[in-house]
Amino acid sequence: MKKLAIFVEGQTEQIFVERLLNEIAGEKNINIETEKFLSHGRGKYSFVALKASKNRPKRKYYVLIRDCCNDAKVKSAVKDSLPSLSKEKYNKVIGLRDVYPKKYSEIKKLKIGLAYGIPDNLVPAEILLAIMEIEAWFLAEVTHFEKIDNNLTLDLIRANLNFDPEKDNVQKREHPKEDLKNIYQLVRKTYNKKKQSVERTVNVLDYSIVYLELPKRLSSLSQFIKHIDDFLN
Amino acid sequence: MKLESITFNQYYQSETNINTWILDDFLLQNVNLIVGKNASGKTRALNIMSTLANLLSGHKTEMPSDHSCFKIVFRSERGRAVYELCYREKKVYKEKYRIGKKVFLNRREDGKGVIFAEQLKKKMKFQVPESNLACVFKRDSVQHPYFEELYKWGDSLRHYKFGEKMGKDHLAIFEKKDDKSRVGEETVSPKETSLVVGIFDQGVKKFGDNFKSEIIKGMEFIGYDIEDIDIELSGEVKIVRPIKQTPHAIYVKERDLEDRTAQFYISQGMFRALSLIIQINYSIFEEGSCFILIDDVGEGLDFDRSSSLINYIVEKIEGTDIQLVMSTNDRFVMNTVPLKYWSIILREGAECRVYNYKNSKKIFNDFEYTGMANFDMLTTEFYKSGFSDK
Fold first, then answer.
1. Which among A147, A203, B87, B377 is least buried, having the fewest CB atoms inside 10 angstroms?
2. How far apart are alpha carbons B258 and B7 in whole angstroms?
């Protein structure tokens, strides 16, 4: 059985990644467990299971998704966990966090910085960036808007918000979460951090587009999917 | 006047050669948190500054018996001031003071030297005892007013050893003038950091109820919910030798307790925090400049409170004329104090080097991009060379 651990900065990433993995690998081929950061004070912490671990049949792939609850904790959590994950014979560890609140111009430095201090004698690990936020990936999947609301057309978005999620480079949008929020508000719908809101968006994305088409437009999504593909193959 | 940098060399004579311990060009900011491994020299650095301040203010009249040299740079009203001092076996053999390019004092081993007389507008020869500092011995606000800044800086020192009792084992006896008043004003020096009972009493008398309410707010800020603090006769103390007056102690009234708690029964951690908050507020209310050293800040407090205490102190001194130097060994405290305040002390053999925002700005800024906790700055030794080795 191959094992992968993915450390994400928040619930949005955790929900999306879990769904994406099930879509790519197929639910019958993959066991996914999700855990959430829990602070014990004095800098001590652990990860606790979000769902009770059931007796699942052994599958070809096992993925552990850890929600670090903060972008600033992803790197530290990856670093701290590498010795134990190496012992448990994980094949790969990925971290996933947004560039925001850093700026687009700081991406290169951020990539160098995030690679710093990751030991190279344990399970291979890499911290990946969603440029500028994971919501850029949702923005780019333009067919999902009309599934949120019939009236939420691309024409309406273009006319009211002075940007085109289909044609513009959404990775250059400074704060895609705000963009998504503004788009949904055109039809009086909300987008926020709450589980229900995130799930509503994640559930209507077309994953064949996310997996096959969007990597051609979005370098950060392409990188993430490449790591998933490498793991699954 | 604020301390801009300090270089210190201490020499030890062994049978075969001379060994040294060096603190090399420690650049200081307004707020400094000295961090480093155990035995790296954090406490020693504070003690060195304390010794210097006490010598310059005349509070320490006897020269130390070791062999040491200081080079201190101050930011003064008159400009950049450099004071150099060397002594050996309780005798001064070099002492020099200049502001900008102008040398005001230059003194040699035999106590002889040249000093600038302000009123006369010329340099004059002088001689002082070898066991005295010329800047203290020749202190004269008419002819040598430039020494006043050195004196005031030294006199403004407040050195708190947070890991010790902070006055919990000290009570106060007040001389009664009559039944209605207590003579006690201005008799407690805020430099006597164990005499917190007296300092509190003095503070209330000098500054009024605002002083007390600031202390209560400070305690609330760090997570101790007290609604009152006062000084009372302490019936709990057993007097071994007969004294005329009954000693006074600090009592606090916590919101969730019915009775007040005397200082003996307050936990050590809570008392340390209370004592520091009282004394820091006293310095702030005095509105002068102050040089505050706090060793092992946060010791004995839980993580949340020690972080809150440091944040409280840093916020309170913002905009004042107070320069603050703290030290800590606590990893979790380090993680909450912004790197811009850090001074990382690294000891390699006998030499201590200090890395901070002043001399390693790019590296300290670059660390932000690593996504690591502050403490990892130490564990990975990123401060030495940043990304340059990658």
1. A203
2. 53
Tens of pLDDT along chain A (233 residues) come to 899 999 999 999 999 999 999 999 887 788 999 999 988 776 778 899 887 556 567 788 999 999 999 888 899 999 999 999 999 999 999 999 999 999 999 999 999 999 999 999 999 999 999 999 999 999 999 999 999 999 999 999 999 998 899 999 999 999 999 999 999 999 999 999 899 999 999 999 999 999 999 999 999 999 999 999 999 98
CA proximity to B250, closest of B270, B220, B223, B221: B270
- Closest C-alpha among B102, B141, B187 to residue B197: B187
Is residue B268 within 8 Å of B190, Cβ to Cβ?
no
pTM of the model: 0.85
Q: How many CB atoms lie within 10 A of CB A221?
A: 24
* Least Cα separation, residue A82 to chain B (angstroms): 14
Cα of B332 to nearest chain A Cα, Å: 6
H or E stretch covering A232: helix A219-232
- H/E element holding A13? helix A11-25
Q: Does the beta carbon of B385 lie under 8 angstroms from any beta carbon of chain A? A: no
Nearest to B334 by CA among B383, B386, B283: B383
> How far off is chain B from A54, nearest CA to CA, in Å?
34
Q: Does B109 touch chain A (CB under 8 A)?
A: no
Q: Which of B203, B185, B367 is nearest to B274 (CA)?
A: B203
| Identity of the residue numbered A149 | D
Residue A52 distance to chain B (closest CA, Å):
31
The answer to whether the CB atoms of A116 and B302 lie below 8 A apart is no
Residue in chain B nearest A42 by alpha carbon: B303
Among A66, A140, A69, A128, smallest CA distance to A98 is for: A128
Residue B117 contacts residue B144 (beta carbons within 8 Å): yes
B382 to A115: CB separation less than 8 angstroms, yes or no: no
Tokens 């020096």 map to which residue? Answer: B189
In A, which residues are within 8 Å of B385 by CB distance? none
Are the Cβ atoms of B371 and A113 closer than 8 angstroms?
yes
In terms of Cα–Cα distance, which of B162, B158, B169 is closest to B192? B158
Cis peptide preceding A101, ω within 30 of 0:
yes
A32: β partners? A63
CA distances (Å), B97 to each of B45, B73, B146, B352, in order? 22, 10, 9, 25
Q: Do A112 and B387 touch (CB under 8 A)?
A: yes
CA distance B320 to B31: 11
Cβ within 8 Å, pair A41-B370: no
> Taking a C-beta distance cutoff of 8 angstroms, is the pair B170, B197 a contact?
yes
Nearest CA in chain B to A114: B370
Residue count (chain B): 390
Reported ipTM: the value is 0.85
Chain A to chain B Cβ contacts (< 8 Å): 57
From chain B residues 297-326, the ones with a CB under 8 A of any chain A CB are 302-304
What are B126-137's pLDDT values in tens digits?
999 999 999 999
Cβ neighbours of A106 in B, within 8 Å: 369
SS3 at position B2: strand
Q: Which residue has the tokens 């969730």?
A: B256
